[in-house]
Specification:
CATH superfamily of one domain: FAD/NAD(P)-binding domain
Distance between the termini: 13 Å
Shape: globular
Number of strands: 21
CATH architecture of one domain: 3-Layer(bba) Sandwich
CATH class of one domain: Alpha Beta
Helix content: 25-40%
CATH topology of one domain: FAD/NAD(P)-binding domain
Structural class: alpha/beta
Strand order of the largest sheet: 8-7-17-18-19-16-20
Number of helices: 10
Strand content: 15-25%
Radius of gyration: 22 Å
């Protein structure tokens, strides 16, 4: 193949479809599952869609991406929503982000949070720290750190938060102390909004329907049930667990690097560094009861609850009921076993962890690989916590760039 693509999730499907639009015919996707979609797959549970990877929505922020995707699933098949995400904290249910909405708490709590934010390091001119825990105190103050950010992130990512860096925190909304104070005085949120402030979700289907349609456009260019276990950089071949071999000129991998048991020809220091890449695994559970809320999802920092967030399916998916939880797999034993969910699904690879040394590892790995015709793409190919719209944009750009230089 001119192009061999590993993984039929959003990254691989977008890359391959752009190649096809450009006129390329010599390409193939290898997918380990028997269907396409990756983390964005949907299944039918209780007569309505259930997104196995948790809450996946299409952000409005990238018009070129949406235009590309609407070519497979027209805009008429989508509903447009204003984000309503909430936080359950200190006996209050407030909107997210917390620092823009503490005005929704009782007055005593507002005063305590404002006092703590006012003397946070960033407001005293202190230098920004390089580790995540220190940054939380520096940016948001002790009260938000200890009541929300630290317990929530321990539940979602890992107990060892001191291993995380700060280079990825541009994903978080940026709200200054002045804006927090203004919001309390005017009872209105200020500052930048979090991702998915507006988002699309299909009217009749789960989010996975989009990727099934993209896969249908490729048809004979996808081989399912093909688990890749190794790359030989010298012979430019990929090997599957069934000992099948595929040869390529250019390889685009969207699967986790830790899945490769063989990386022949790669320098030992780079190969060994891959073992340092960390991720979290998430279980999603469906419960049939409707929640008394207008929110699409709710964050729960309470360490006594196993899950870190709930998605109220009935608030964004037509003709549905119930909700689903997201729980780091290490915490699933905390569930009360007297309440049985109708459906559960475990995503071994859910979130890449942004550990302190990861940027250096990935920069060296991807640079060396690209010099040998192998390119990492998307959440797992680049080990970055990308949302699907970002992944699609990266895939389109990479396809255009590689095709133009072949």
């Amino acid at each position: 193949m001119q192009y061999l693509i590993l993984g039929a999730g959003p990254a691989g499907l977008s890359f391959a479809n752009r190649l096809q639009q450009l006129g390329e015919t010599s390409f193939l996707i290898l997918e380990r599952e028997n269907t396409a979609g990756g983390l964005c797959r949907s299944v039918d549970v209780d007569d309505a869609p259930f997104d196995i990877g948790g809450g996946h929505f299409l952000d409005v922020k990238r018009p070129a991406v949406n235009s590309f995707l609407f070519g497979f699933m027209p805009i008429e098949e989508w509903d447009l929503y204003e984000r309503n995400s909430q936080i359950s904290i200190s006996g209050n249910m407030i909107n997210s982000p917390i620092e823009a909405n503490i005005w929704q708490m009782d007055l005593e709590n507002q005063i305590e949070y404002l006092k703590a934010i006012a003397i946070a390091g960033c407001n005293l001119g202190e230098e920004m720290p390089s580790r995540f825990i220190d940054w939380i105190y520096w940016k948001l103050g002790r009260k938000i750190a200890e009541d929300y950010m630290l317990p929530y992130n321990r539940k979602m990512f890992a107990d060892e938060l001191d291993e995380l860096g700060t280079y990825w925190l541009d994903k978080l909304p940026n709200v200054s102390f002045d804006e927090t104070l203004m919001s309390c005085l005017t009872h209105k949120a200020y500052g930048t909004q979090p991702g998915h402030a507006q988002f699309y979700y299909p009217k009749k289907y789960g989010y996975g329907e989009l990727w099934l349609r993209m896969a249908e456009e490729l048809r004979e260019h996808i081989a399912y049930n093909q688990k890749v276990c190794g790359i030989d950089f010298t012979t430019k071949t990929v090997k599957t667990k069934d000992d099948e071999k595929y040869q390529f000129d250019i390889l685009v991998t969207t699967i986790p690097w830790n899945e490769f048991t063989q990386l022949a020809g790669m320098p030992d220091d780079i190969k060994n560094s891959i073992r340092s890449l960390k991720h979290s695994s998430i279980e999603t559970r469906y419960f049939p009861e409707n929640l008394n809320t207008d929110a699409q999802w709710i964050y729960y920092p309470d360490s006594m609850l196993p899950y870190h967030r709930i998605l109220a399916r009935h608030n964004f998916c037509h003709d549905s009921k119930g909700y689903w939880t997201e729980t780091r797999t290490e915490r699933t034993s905390m569930f009360d076993n007297t309440t049985k969910p109708i459906f559960t699904y475990i995503n071994e690879y859910a979130y890449p962890l942004n550990t302190v040394g990861k940027p250096q590892i990935m920069n060296k790995l991807l640079k060396w690989c690209s010099e040998h015709g192998v390119y990492g793409l998307g959440r797992w190919g680049e080990h970055q916590h990308y949302n699907s719209d970002v992944t699609v944009e990266l895939a389109l750009n990479m396809a255009d760039r590689l095709y133009s230089t072949k």
